[in-house]
Amino acid sequence: MAQLFRDRILGESKRESMRISTNGVAKSFSIRDLPSPFGELENDLSDSELRETVYEIFVGCCRSSGGKPLTYIPQSEKNNHERSPSFSSNSSSSSSNFSSLSLQRSLTSTAASKVKKALGMRSNSNKKSPGKEISPTSKSKKPVTVGELMRIQMRVNEATDSRIRRGLLRIAAGQLGRRIDSMVLPLELLQQFKSTDFPDQQEYEAWQMRNLKVLEAGLLLHPIVPIEKSNSAAQRLRQIIRGASEKLIETGKNNESMQSLRSAVMPLASRSIDGFGSDACHWADGFPLNLRLYQMLLEALFDAYDETSIIEEIDEVLELIKKTWVILGMNQMLHNLCFTWVLFHRFVATGQTENDLLFAADNQLAEVAKDAKATKDPVYSKILSSTLSSILGWAEKRLLAYHDTFDRDNVDLMQSIVSLGVSAAKILVEDNSHEYRRRRKEEVDVARNRIDTYIRSSVRTAFAQASYIC
């Protein structure tokens, strides 16, 4: 921890990613110094492949068994009907029941966002919603559902969406009563489609390889339960995936190749985390795969037509997104941490001009601080430390020489950056530091020490630059 707060050398903070021109447009910015704190995947799954995969999970967790459009049930109706949308109507699990009274809520009737209010963000209700710009003829169509909005936000075309829903219907018809978390979705979808279900062979090949790479990432490279080297199912799955890169598997039927794939996948996915038997399958809940997938879902909360604005329907969409937790192994604490990173990363990636995003990230970080005090889970603590260290490192590059970073055009950002940096430092020191807990709390004032360091470092930098000019 001492290394985290050591004095930086003079001139460490550069102008390139914070200077703002007089017309409010960023002169230059870069996110190269902001790597993902969640870690990198060990295979070459692209963002678009991850996005399509998690959209399949999202639809599978939220759709009703009758094949109706994805809908939203307001909180008032949920109080009267303790049932929620799901994959199957025959399951006794609360996460897999469905309501026939689902309301197709129009985007135009969305109430003021409670989530935005909690984040301290302004409403952008005067802007056009992505759902209103689907096509020139959208006025003649029925009101757009929240599910349709999510399809647009995740950049999934209608043909792909239709295929996904068709596949889920086929799975539901053949496996009545099975919960979505008791299936390995990529495996089941491979069983449902063959090459003739795609417009061309190239798209089919890309689809098959994506599903196999997802199985590889979730079951072999980033499993939630470690794999023994002698595991025969893991060895078979590796061989099948390598073989498919040379000759595709014949999918869409219950043939020998699909049976071989299933016999390798299911023993790996069915392994228990706690040693007790369970019907749940674990194929997308290992770190960092699950966090990368969940990040894709949260990024869909940003307006498709204005990348710095969050959609007005965030409350409804977030409620549906949380239904994927059963597959991705997420919880409220991981959600709070991931959401903080997504807000912060979007601020940096979009030119560092939208103070609303930085303010929202800081407010969300307050929830993370509460979580950090409430748990000592080692996995969570590792992700927490990585995320906050990345945020703090970025902030300190601006604050340790703030005379060089800020001017009259962007000085309004300084308060938010100081607050974010100090908040991240306090969590790291007070809740993640054994050294801090060994000392008397009053002996360490993290906020005061950080501010003092920023001032002293910036003054030294300013004097060094003045001396060099003279």
TrEMBL record:
Low complexity bias spans: 86-99
Annotated InterPro entries: unc-13_homologue
Region (Disordered): 72-99, 114-145
Protein name: MHD1 domain-containing protein
